[in-house]
Design a protein that fits this description.
- The structure holds two protein chains of two kinds.
- By secondary structure, chain A is an all-beta fold.
- Chain A is built from no helices and eleven strands.
- The termini of chain A are far apart.
- By secondary structure, chain B is an all-beta fold.
- Chain B is built from no helices and eleven strands.
- In chain B, the strands form two sheets. In chain B, strands 2, 4, 5, 6, 9, 10 and 11 form a seven-stranded mixed beta sheet that branches.
- In chain B, strand 7 and strand 8 form a beta hairpin.
- The N and C termini of chain B lie far apart (34 Å).
- Classes of the chains: A mainly beta, B mainly beta.
- Chains A and B meet through strand 4, strand 5, strand 9 and strand 10 of A and strand 5 and strand 10 of B.
Chain lengths: 110, 112
Amino acid sequence: EDQVTQSPEALRLQEGESSSLNCSYTVSGLRGLFWYRQDPGKGPEFLFTLYSAGEEKEKERLKATLTKKESFLHITAPKPEDSATYLCAVQAGGNEKLTFGTGTRLTIIP
Amino acid sequence: DTAVSQTPKYLVTQMGNDKSIKCEQNLGHDTMYWYKQDSKKFLKIMFSYNNKELIINETVPNRFSPKSPDKAHLNLHINSLELGDSAVYFCASSQQVNQPQHFGDGTRLSIL
């Protein structure tokens, strides 16, 4: 069965303090790894899709990378508005479903 | 313009009742999904429809029945509600099954 583990569960950073979130996965035949951001009371908002090891995607202060076992979401010089829960999900094999991790709750302190 | 909209946003009801949640997407997507997010924020797939046809049916009690009248709509009917059904239910859609999914803002279901 596909498994996704995110770490840390929660992360508090000072504004401007860069860091990385980790998403480790165990799947049979990765078809895609997805990063989402979820704000309180809202649905997950799509950020990135990564399809193969070595791929990188960037958007503003966020950069996602992928290896054969894990993905990192790097946050450079974060601002308070980057505070949210970041979710990682995988799609694998002949399975159409997304399997989500439990998320990392990120808090940026002004 | 809301891409994926769910109604109602909040649903408070008694145990044993039957209720429905509606979902509509205006993105022209072919595939729609229902997810359940529990109190620990874990998001789990329940059902998926592609062009009105059921393609994913996870281990969900048969009290839950999805219905897709057309590509743009996917409703969820729940019979004989139980305390454990309390959660946030999210609807999502994607162009194809391996494309990014776009989520609604959820329906918070509370069972008294």
